[in-house]
Structures are given as structure tokens and as C-alpha cells.
Amino acid sequence: MIKIIKITSILIFFTTSLYGNSDEKLYKKIDLFGEVLDKIKKEYVDDVDQSKMLDSAINGALQSLDPYSSYMGPELFKEIETDTKGEFGGLGIEVGMEAGVIKVISPIDDTPASKAGIKAGDYIVQIDGKQVQGKSLIEAVKMMRGPVGSKVKLTIRRKGEKKAIEKNIIREIIQIKSVEAKIFKKNIAYLRLKSFNSNSSKQLSKEINNFESKDKPVGYILDLRNNPGGLLTQAISVTDFFLDDGEILSTKGRRTIENRRFFAKKGDRVKGKPLIVLINRGSASASEIVAGALQDHKRAIVLGENTYGKGSVQSIIPLSDGGGMRLTVSKYYLPSGKSISEVGVAPDIMVEEDDKNFSLNSPSDNQLNYALELLTT
User: Catalytic residue numbers?
Assistant: First the structure.
């Protein structure tokens, strides 16, 4: 009981410093929280690890805000620091939280998840036979990681499928080469951007320079399908390659430092040549910034399917216990003032994947074929 009183006292002190002494309703809720903890300790059927229970309460508070905010204990906090690097261990899958279950934002190309047939929009309900519901996003990610060469079984639910689908996947070191580039017939330059890590814009710039100096393409296709996003700074740089001026995006948050506007620098790297941007349900976050900004400026035709709809910026904040929390600190807005959150970017030309024969960047890729036809007619 002493521990519970102490915790409640800390909460009261904290909220007093934020809200003052007049918020009686808030204090009553804090008292209720202490009462619940006391009842659990005295009457719950099994002994309870109060420390873990409080961690869950903290995480629950954060997850009630949005699908992207969460708490990380010290061990998880150290692991999460590898997420924005170009090399990490796992399955090659970007996930988010929706209604208490894990939802696939996008499988990354040429990774175990992609090769196993995991699709954007899939719901992961079990990992190695263990239920995912009730676990935090970070806990689920940890369950999917493991020694290189080891196997993990994912049980997924997919819209349109009556039965659950099981996938056995071998874990690998995920090495992401952000950019794939090639020239198609009739001199169309193709740039596939798979992620927005720290080297993405440099890789893309190198490929554009090669095209412009050697091939002199008549038009460009920028493929952002199944690109789950990444670093905001990289999204700004990539968008800037194709704009001569104008706003790229703005961010708005509670703190003044989070309210910013970003503009293109003078000079379109491809000299105004026709540009088509390919998107799908696996295009999220930074991908949506690029596609949406180029669409707003009427610099590109956006083709494919509606994007995922992640229009917020998360900050990793260290905490006193050695852990940390991932907290949404701002939302970003396209030049038109539109928010991407939960609605995504709608294509100018809707072309759905051919479910029966579709394979990304292959002869059966009907979206890519449509874009090539537009640029060659």
C-alpha cells in the first residue's frame, strides 16, 4: 500500500505542476487509479508484478493517443535505435498498431517478408502461436526479431480471405539498398525508392546524375510503392530534386520548435521532364510527403492506389529509467494545407494492382505498364 500511495503522490505532484490546483476531476481520476492498484494487489487471483503492470499502464496511456506513440523499457529502447539505419536484423517489415492489433504498413522489397507474400494491410494476429493482441507495438516487433537463420511463424488475417494465413519466414540481416534504377524502352528513366534512410537522397542523386549525363531520358517514373517511409529530412531532399521552388510541407505541433515550413531550393534536377509517381497502400509517411507535394505543385502525375495515411512525426524521448517513449510531436501538411493523417494521398489516376498476376516491377506489373504507356504515347 505504501508503494501505491507513493506512486499516486508522484502523479499528483506531476499533474499539479502542469495544471495547477483547480482540476478536481483529474485528481479524482488519479485517486481512482490508486484505488484500482490497491484492489488488484489485495484481491486479484494471482500475485502481480506491479512494476510490469505500471509499465503496461504507461504504455496504455500512450497508445490511447494514437497508433504510433508507445513506451519502451530500457532493453527495448536500446534495440529501437537501430530502426533508422540502413542495416538491421529481422523480417523486413514495417508495422503499426490498429485497434489493438498489428497492421502491416509495408513489406520492404527483396526481404524475407516480401518474398513470403506479406502484403500491406495484413493484420498479424499471432507470432509463433502467441496472441499479439494486448501487446505493445514494440513488444511485437521484438517477438519478430531473432537470430539470423532462425524461423518465425506469422499468423495473419487478410481482407477478402475467410481463413487465417500462416507464413513461416526465415530471419535475415536486412540490408537496404534504397534505390533501384534502370532505363526502359523509348528512353524512360525508372527510379525505385524503397526507403528513406540516411543515404537515400545521395543514392537517388547519383542515379539522376548518371541518367542526365549519359542517357538523356525523355521522362521519369518515381516508384514509391511499398515504401514505408523513414527520415523526414530525406523526404524533403528527394522532393526538392523535382521542384524549382515552392513549399514542400509544413509541420505543426504544440511546441513552437515543431512549427516549421520547408521550401524547395532553386533548380529542378531533371529539368522539368515529365514525371509519374507510383503509389500504393504500402506507401507511407515520407513517401506520402513526396507524392503529395509533387501532386500539389502539379509537377507529377500520381498513379496507383490510395496511400496508407501516416501524416505525423514521432520523436524518441529518453526517460529516467533508461527507457524511452515514442511520442507524436507534430503533424505534417502538404502545400495545399491538407493533412495526410488517416486519409493518405489519392492518386490522380487510380490503377489497382492485378491481384491474380501482379508482381512488383515485372512484366505483370500493370501499374508500371500503365505509367510507361502514358510516357510513350
Answer: 285, 296, 310
pLDDT 10s digits, 239-297: 999 999 999 999 999 999 999 999 999 999 999 999 999 999 999 999 999 999 999 99
Q: pTM of this prediction?
A: 0.77
Residue 66 lies in a domain: no
Taking only the tens place, the pLDDT of each residue in 23-43 is: 788 888 888 988 998 899 899
Asked, for residue 55, whether it belongs to a domain, the answer is no
Q: Assess if residue 69 is contained within a domain.
A: no
The number of distinct structural domains making up the chain is 3
Sign of CA dihedral 258, 296, 107, 234: negative
- 8 with 113, same domain: the answer is no
Identify the CA nearest to 67 among candidates 226, 284, 278, 250.
284
309 & 186 share domain: yes
Q: Rounded to an integer, what distance in angstroms lies between the CA atom of residue 241 and that of residue 252?
A: 24
Please report, in angstroms and rounded to a whole number, the separation of the first and last CA atoms in the chain: 77
Residue with cell 515552392: 246
In a domain, residue 67? The reply is no
How many angstroms separate the CA atoms of 342 and 308, rounded? 7
What is the span of the domain harbouring residue 329?
176-376
- 21 contacts 43 by C-beta, under 8 angstroms: no
In Å, how far are 72, 95, 234, 331 from 68, measured between CA atoms? 12, 10, 20, 12
Q: How far apart, in whole angstroms, are the C-alpha atoms of residue 144 and residue 91?
A: 7
Looking at the fold, whether 105 and 212 belong to one and the same domain comes out as no
- Whether the CB-CB separation of 80 and 137 falls below 8 Å is answered with no
CA 157/CA 165 separation, integer angstroms: 6
